[in-house]
Design a protein that fits this description.
By secondary structure, this protein is mostly helical. The protein folds into 2 domains: 76 residues, Arc Repressor Mutant, subunit A; 132 residues, Tetracycline Repressor, domain 2 (Orthogonal Bundle), CATH 1.10.357. Helix 8 packs across helix 10. The longest helix has 26 residues. The two termini are 33 Å apart.
Length: 219
């Protein structure tokens, strides 16, 4: 992923005094990208939303292209999600499965709420948008999924096979992600089921899967 840092690098000559303007441009761009899509958002529209003179090209003093602006925005939001992938660190020395699962569920939902813009953007553009969005999907979903699989294996020992851990992780993370992704994807209101009920049910389901799993004869 070394190409991402290169694409998002500010233009030569920029200084710390331009940081506030740069952040304002990123804020405006990510909001517009999430609402109208990357291809549906023009540089002029971003300039207007960021308080710059529309059509004057002020954005290019901070970013060489619209894709570089997108890359900077996605990078910033991915850095906020980095802790989400380190699931095992959250559970250090807790020693209680139900407590660990409850923390996991609430943490994942909170992080997904914080990154609602990125979720909407990924949902609308990931398949046909710039490569940065494909890479973002890999970081947000695939890496988090792999960490959860590894935690399940570490937590369960030889009782749960790698194949079973894959299935449990897919069911568990898929359920939590869908709670937040579907409203963003379909543009509908959040589910009327409150988070407390979702978390309680999710924890009970995952606890049951992890404690009653049968030996995997195909492993």
């Amino acid at each position: 992923m070394g190409d991402l840092s290169t694409a998002a690098t500010a233009l030569p000559g920029t200084t710390g005094t331009t940081g506030a303007t740069r952040d304002r441009i990123i804020d405006a761009a990510m909001e517009l990208f999430s609402e109208h899509g990357y291809r549906g958002t023009s540089i002029t529209r971003i300039e207007q939303a960021a308080g710059l003179s529309p059509g004057a090209g002020g954005i290019y003093h901070h970013f060489p292209s619209k894709e570089a602006l997108l890359t900077a925005g996605v990078q910033r939001q991915l850095s906020r999600l980095a802790a989400l992938r380190d699931i095992r660190r959250l559970f250090a020395d807790l020693g209680d499965l139900r407590t660990e699962l409850t923390i996991a569920a609430r943490y994942v939902l909170a992080e997904l709420d914080q990154e609602a813009q990125l979720l909407r953007l990924l949902a609308s553009e990931a398949r046909h948008g710039p490569k940065i969005l494909t890479d973002a999907v890999a970081q947000v979903v695939e890496a988090t999924y792999r960490e959860f699989v590894e935690w399940i294996i570490d937590r369960s020992g030889p009782v749960v096979s790698a194949r079973q851990a894959d299935a449990i992780a897919a069911i568990g993370l898929g359920a939590l992600i869908s709670v937040r992704l579907f409203p963003n994807l379909l543009g509908t209101a959040q589910s009327k089921v409150d988070d407390n009920a979702i978390v309680e049910t999710w924890v009970s389901a995952l606890e049951h899967l992890l404690t009653t799993v049968k030996p995997d004869v195909s492993a």
